[in-house]
Amino acid sequence: MSADRLVIGSRGSRLALWQAGFVKDSLLRKYPGLEVEVRVIKTRGDKILDVALSKVGGKGLFTKELEQAILSGGVDLAVHSMKDLPTDLPEGLVAGVVTRRSHGSDVLVSRGDLAFRDLPPGVRVGTGSLRRRVQLRALRPDLEYADLRGNVDTRLKKLDAGVYDAVVLAEAGLVRLGLAGRIAEVFPPGQVAPAAGQGALALEYREDDTRTAGLLAFLADSKTTLEVRAERRFLGTLGGGCQVPIGVRAELLPGGDLHVQGMIADLDGERLLRETITGPPCSEPGRALAERMLDSGGRELLQEITGA
To answer: In the chain, what are the domains?
Structure first.
């Protein structure tokens, strides 16, 4: 790559392009002489839209092709929603920059702007996430939950067309696309635990690419980095992916400790474990919470789901 040029790999959805554009614009403001290109790369997750994420399986559903482009030198970096990035990265790559988290919760968008508790029994709620579904079912087992795939715009169109009565989406995506006005309710993490890293962006590049690392360093947020590291340690210790209902949220407290909330459930949401832990980042609270939950019933749940 040219010394005064940087190529960003991105998925082609409106949200992904917004995220890549945010990084591009930030770079251009910081380095006025730099040329920055956004190159669209289609991933397997973008091509399979008629199957629930939990059934597609495999890690890196939305990242593998982007990572291959980085390793081959086709692009310098990729911009990911951190929640889509597997805990184990390919050899030679690092997610060296985590941006400041914004709007990291799950939200309800409903016809008539009804709150979740006010939805009539039996109405159809769409979600593409097993993690969301089991937590919602635990709160309202009287509703019908149906698979929902596609980008944010597609999901909202299906809601508006009457295919669903309500849908549950990531808050950050709606806010970034200027659609915050569609939100009927924000679920607190203790009610619907989000995915690890939700609301943050991960910038992934080659481990030996010191030039790209140096250019991107100003975008790193230390608070979010500590929180996301704890969340991904929680997820990594449990060994979960999109086929396993796992949620986690870490918050850096004013005194410097991390408060971590974790959730593990079976596939039906009939057995749902929630626990919290608070401790300094150096004590690895994410991993400690995962180990505690494994010992208090989580191991059996995961063995039933994965067969391992």
So the answer is: 5-100+200-220 (3.40.190.10), 106-187 (3.40.190.10), 231-302 (3.30.160.40)
Instruction: Show the DSSP H helices in the chain as ranges.
Output: 14-30, 44-47, 53-56, 64-72, 130-139, 152-160, 171-176, 210-216, 222-238, 285-293, 299-306
pLDDT tens-digit series, residues 263-298: 999 988 889 999 999 999 999 999 999 999 999 999
Token couple for 148:
């929902």
- Is 46 annotated in the active site? no
Write the pLDDT tens digit of every residue in 35-93.
999 999 987 765 554 455 555 455 566 788 999 999 999 999 999 999 989 888 999 99
Q: Which of 84, 106, 165, 209 is catalytic?
A: 84
